Amino acid sequence: MVIMETYKKESAFMKHHTQLHQDHLTNLTPEIKSFLNKTRAELKGTKKRQFMARVVSLMGKGGQRKALKELGWNRDTIRKGMKEMQSGIVCVDNFAGRGRKLSEEKFPTLLDDIKDIMEPICQTDPTFKSTQLYSPLTAKEVHNRLIEFKGYPSDDIPSVVTINRKMNKLGYQLKKVAKCRPKKNSRDK
Do 80 and 108 reside in the same domain of the chain? Predict the structure, then answer.
């Protein structure tokens, strides 16, 4: 719904572009600034860049600087929109490529090394009510053993919190294994 209203606003703005073009948008009143920034805020990705490029092209020579100074628009985004308009080729945003990479990508053998450290020490529930593996090793101890025995650099190894998450992901829980005790005989009381 918002996008449809935005397109209506944009088309209304473009219908009146002849009058605005004559003035080259030299006099940006607070109302025009507000209108342009609200319209820009409602658009996303390619549509936003194309809108910005159209407005800047209507501003004429020095429009990018004026848009930066008076509207607070990023000149790199304006340039990208101008290139998209001139070439007709739309740039695809790579949102999935952003963010921090997983520790497994940086250290491909991390999970296997954690398993190698945990396997000899871990135990199953003595009552066999679950398949969860329990270990007396803390994440800090696993962290230290990765440095000491597996040769990870101490300044570049994942944090203790990250190692704890990886241990949980692999199915290891930090918990003392309770010993099986015989049931109490209630007759003895």
Answer: no
